[in-house]
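Let us practice reading a record.
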Amino acid sequence: MNRMRSFGYDRQPVPEIGMGCYRITADMGVDRPTALATLERAYERGVRLFDTAPLYGHGEADALLGEAFAHVPDDEIIIGAKLSGPTDNLWDYTYDNCMRGFEQTLRNLRRDSVQVLQIHGNPGWRDLAADHRREWHDVFGKGMAYEALLRIREQGGCKYIGVTSHWSPHLQRCLEHAEFDSVEIASHYNLLMNAARRTVLPVAERTNTAVVVATPLFAGRLVSLAALAAQGVRRSGDSAPAAAVLREVLAETGYTLPQLATLYLLDDPRVTCVIPGSANVAELEDNLAVAALPRLSADIIERLRTVGLPYPYLKDEAMTLVPV
């Protein structure tokens, strides 16, 4: 049972667990028949939000989605496509390059439009210092990505516009600076990292912006306690205190660590959809099985919130936008 939540200004129903599509590409060691079988099974099981980008397999994820779902009408599937230029010139955010990239994306997807189009991988807030103004300008400056995004929506190429980043203070400032329908948070909201709770989520709630959470397993750290011990928590030093709390909760609930990680995110009503990656049907079934599990108690959620770091270098003082 994949529960429904609301996406966008018109509150379109969307299942709370979607699918990130990078893991079905050859870059991740997955062959085409396995990838297509995984996508088709996801749709059969009720997944309706699929996250993709030109970066994923150098256009392969887009093409696989096109092969699997070209026959599915736009109002029956939400494809979260990304704007970052064509595969032969990624990360050039000029208007013309973004428009060329979107044309390539539509060809690969075999569609005339997408539901969601997001500026991919915006520079982080740390890149907005005086000596890094070019990066902010690349997105919000005159003749750059945001203008392309607005033009594509005006032409009917997408319904919702969004922005993605691994750096939640940047997403916060994006929502305060410009109009977006959705944000995608990667790495800053999971069992080990609570930065998004202090930054982008309060603004998203105030502006009624859909929130998609990617990488719920934090780049593999939350696959198991052994993986956490091996990789640690970046820039945080010792991971043993977090592991101790997680070990206690795992013993009490009987859940696996990946299940716990997804249930923790789904407890937050501000989260619209969590998009774990699935490299095959077995991983997909494991990811979707979480939706049928009993939700975590308020006591356990509060204990788990003590695990997540706000990022030790995230400052509390007010930040000022760099002019463009």
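A brief commentary: The CA atoms of residues 50 and 79 lie 5 Å apart.
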